[in-house]
């Protein structure tokens, strides 16, 4: 079974920084795309950033100059460095991964439970 566990969420003042982590554990062959999503109260879940196994990142426009996504393939862990945080960044941040469980097999979607980020003004 594959599990994703996020950590690093906290309460922080506007302008502050946080670093989120997402660790993938279990039995699998390879992790392809990894991504961060977020869901604020009363809003739909939205994509924030993703990173391929090659390391190429992509960001939604309004975090592009503030957030940095990275991953360690050796540790099966993804990170999100969030700088210059704003109250509108307040949300539950969820980790997503496309995982190939066996050699030559299909990739499957996995989600973490989320970590709360609260930015006070």
Most strands sheet: 7 strands, mixed
Low-confidence stretches: none
Give the class from helix and strand content and strand pairing. mainly beta
Q: Which H/E pattern describes the elements?
A: EEEEEEEEEEE
The beta-strand count equals 11
Principal-axes geometry comes out as elongated
Q: Ends: how far apart?
A: 40 Å
Helix content: under 10%
Instruction: Please state the average pLDDT score.
Output: 96
Describe this entry's structure for a reader.
By secondary structure, the protein is mostly beta strands. The chain is built from no helices and 11 strands. The strands form 2 sheets. Strands 2, 4, 5, 6, 9, 10 and 11 form a 7-stranded mixed sheet that branches. A 4-stranded antiparallel sheet has the order 1-3-8-7, with no helix packed on it. The chain is elongated and about 50 Å long. The relative contact order is 0.33.
């Amino acid at each position: 079974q594959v599990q994703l566990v996020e950590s690093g969420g906290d309460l922080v003042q506007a302008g502050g920084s946080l670093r989120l982590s997402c660790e993938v554990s279990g039995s699998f062959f390879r992790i392809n795309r990894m991504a961060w999503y977020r869901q604020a109260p009363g809003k739909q879940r939205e994509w924030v950033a993703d990173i391929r196994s090659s390391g190429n990142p992509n960001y939604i426009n309004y975090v592009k100059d503030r957030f940095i996504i990275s991953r360690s393939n050796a540790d099966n862990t993804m990170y999100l460095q969030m700088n210059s945080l704003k109250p509108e960044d307040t949300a539950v941040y969820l980790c997503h991964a496309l995982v190939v469980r066996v050699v030559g097999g299909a990739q499957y979607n996995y989600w973490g439970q989320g970590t709360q980020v609260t930015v006070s003004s």
